[in-house]
Amino acid sequence: MEEIRHEGGTPPAKPLKRGAVLAVIENPFAGAYHEDIQGFMKDLEPLGLDMARRLIEALGGNAGAIEGYGKGAIVGQAGEVEHGALWHVPGGYAMREALGNAKAIVPSTKKVGAAGTRLDVPVTHIDASYVRSHFDAMEVGLADAPRANEMVLALVMTTGARIHARVGGLKAEDIKGEDGLR
Questions:
Q1: 149-172, pLDDT tens digit by residue?
Q2: Residue 130, class by beta-carbon neighbours within 10 Å (0-12 exposed, 13-18 middle, 19+ buried)?
Q3: Residues sharing a CB contact under 8 Å with residue 92, sequence separation 6 or more, in sequence order
């Protein structure tokens, strides 16, 4: 959890909260190439929902206060980046569902790395990907994971725009909410 109260300029009226929840799981595909891996996405759905709900709770318990989100995965060295891609659907849809049908695609990143690898998880507005004030990232990682046969799965949420966002573009209050873009 992070609470940002100042970032140059005048302190904001309301601090920005950013939070991440991470899970370390065994990678069932580590160590060998497997052609058919898609079924594992279904297995990850309950974990995604649990993580999303826990993160909302950690950020104050009000899903309506969440304005930004993102997801990511770090795959241990006996795996491949495609194993991290298995988190796209269960991680993304879990957050969208827990937040009441958020419209925007959940931005994502993934990579293969050793224990201690860090990951910058991209963040965008939950209802419109073109809201520049909410373009952000949160660095996540664990000192002892992922081991070679593990994956670290991450969800990130924020309660607002970057402090002092002022680069123009679509404003959150002008979102149409039709297509997840604008």
A1: 999 999 999 999 999 999 999 988
A2: middle
A3: 71, 105, 106, 108
Q: What is residue 176's predicted lDDT score, i.e. its pLDDT?
A: 87
Give the pair of three-digit tokens for residue 65.
């206060």
What's the pLDDT score for residue 98?
Answer: 97
Say how many domains are in the chain.
Answer: 1
pLDDT, tens digit, for every residue of 85-112?
Answer: 999 999 999 999 999 989 999 999 999 9
Domain of residue 50, CATH code: 3.30.1330.110
Query: Cβ contacts of residue 76 below 8 Å, gap of 6+?
Result: 27, 30, 112, 113, 114, 115, 145, 146, 147, 148, 149, 150, 151
* Dist CA 57 CA 125 (whole Å): 19
Domain of 86 in residue numbering reads as: 21-28+38-174
Rounded to whole angstroms, how far apart are CA atoms 21 and 91? 11
Q: Which residues pair with 122 in a beta bridge?
A: 137
Could you give the C-alpha distances from 41 to 87, 92, 113, in angstroms and in order? 7, 11, 21
Tell me if 147 sits within 8 A of 110, measured CB to CB: no
